[in-house]
Amino acid sequence: MTRENFDRELEELKQKLFQVTESVRKNLNSSIKYLSERDMKGARMIVEADELVNLKCLEIEEQCLNVIATQQPVATDLRLLFSILTISTEIERIGDYAKGIARISEKIGAEKLIKPLVDIPRMEEIAGRMLYDAIRAFTEDDIKAAREIPTRDMKMDVLYNQIHRELITFVMQNPHNIEQTMMLDWIAHNLERVGDRVVNICERTIFTVTGIPVDLN
How many CB atoms lie within 10 A of CB 41? Predict the structure, then answer.
């Protein structure tokens, strides 16, 4: 394979990673939308859509391993390929969070929510934007953006702690709220973990470009 063809294959892998990330981002957004609307059919669609995400991530993994096995990539290429493998795993885990939210929504069922959803959608909005910007930073080798994006994770942590405290008050006011409270808290926790996964992606972006490991937490 010529260098030109090799570079084209690397770019193809980046684009596949971007595309599956977009699918996951849309699933995450829809999982909260269907939760708010109490749309059980929509929630079931998110659960089923996760299988396609898993297949796409597996396809990326297989293509990376095939390139490593057959093309004898140099050190910088290996960093990129292993970073694509690592980030693909992060994306697959974020997809699991979206599926988890949809499953919780199914468990709540037609039951009325104990409170209007305000901060949980705000968390999803921040997380979705972070995810989009992080994968763009990776595909464009933008280490400046990769260093900026993790600063937004602090807002995610603040919102999660705020939601957690508020939900505790609902249990104190009425112990019968405990089951739904725990499920809503777990949804917020899933979104908080999305922020952590995005930080990991940003760390891999910087390492891919510079060869220097960083800890952005």
Answer: 8
DSSP structure string for 26-80: HHHHHHHHHHHHT-HHHHHHHHHHHHHHHHHHHHHHHHHHHHHHHH---HHHHHH
DSSP at 111 = P
Domain harbouring 182, CATH code: 1.20.58.220
What's the number of domains the chain is made of?
1
Closest C-alpha to 143, from 211, 66, 70:
211
* Residue 72 located in a structural domain: yes
- The per-residue pLDDT for range 108-133, each reduced to its tens digit, is 998 889 988 999 999 999 999 999 99
Residue 11 structure tokens: 């770019």
Q: 36 or 7: whose pLDDT is higher?
A: 36
Nearest in space to 15 (alpha carbons), one of 70, 71, 52, 56: 56
Smallest Cα–Cα separation from 86: which of 182, 216, 205?
Answer: 205
Angstrom distance (rounded) from CA 8 to CA 46: 32
**Whole-Å CA distances, 167 to 86, 103, 112, 180, 188:** 35, 20, 15, 9, 11
Listed residue (145, 137, 186) closest to 14, CA to CA:
137
The pLDDT of residue 3 is above 80: no
Is residue 217 one of the residues assigned to a domain?
A: no
